Amino acid sequence: xxxxxxxxxxxxxxxxxxxxxxxxxxxxxxxxxxxxxxxxxxxxxxxxxxxxxxxxxxxxxxxxxxxxxxxxxxxxxxxxxxxxxxxxxxxxxxxxxxxxxxxxxxxxxxxxxxxxxxxxxxxxxxxxxxxxxxxxxxxxxxxxxxxxxxxxxxx
Length: 155
Hints:
Layout: H1 4-12, H2 15-32, H3 39-67, H4 92-107, H5 116-150
Helix pairs in contact: 2-4, 2-5, 3-4, 4-5
C-alpha cells in the first residue's frame, strides 16, 4: 500500500512536470543572459511549435480518453494505442513536449538553452519511455512487438 508521500511523488514525477522544470531553466537562462537574436521570427516559429505541441498532446490525450485507458505513465494500460497519431510515433505526447520546449526557447530567445532539448529527450526516454515499453511489451506481447517493428519511437 502506498503512503501519501509515495502517492504524491507518483503524480508529481510526470513528464509535464519535467517539461516545466526544463522550461523554467530556459526561462531563467533568458533572464540572466537575455539575447535579441531571433526577434519576430523566433516568436512566430516558437508560437507555432508550442501550439502544435499542445494540439498533438490534446489529440493524443483525447485518444486515450476515448479508448478508456490510462494516460498516466506507470499505470496499467487497458489498450495498446496504435491508431491516430500513434500510427506515426509511439510517443507523440513526448514528441509534443519536446516541440513545446523548443518553441518556448525560441519565444524567449534563449538560444543557449537549446542544449536542454536533447537532455530533456534523453531524460524522458530513460525515466519514462524505456519503463513504459518494457511494461507494454510484457502486457501486450506479440501485438506490441509487431507495432514496435512498424512504428518508430519518436518519428
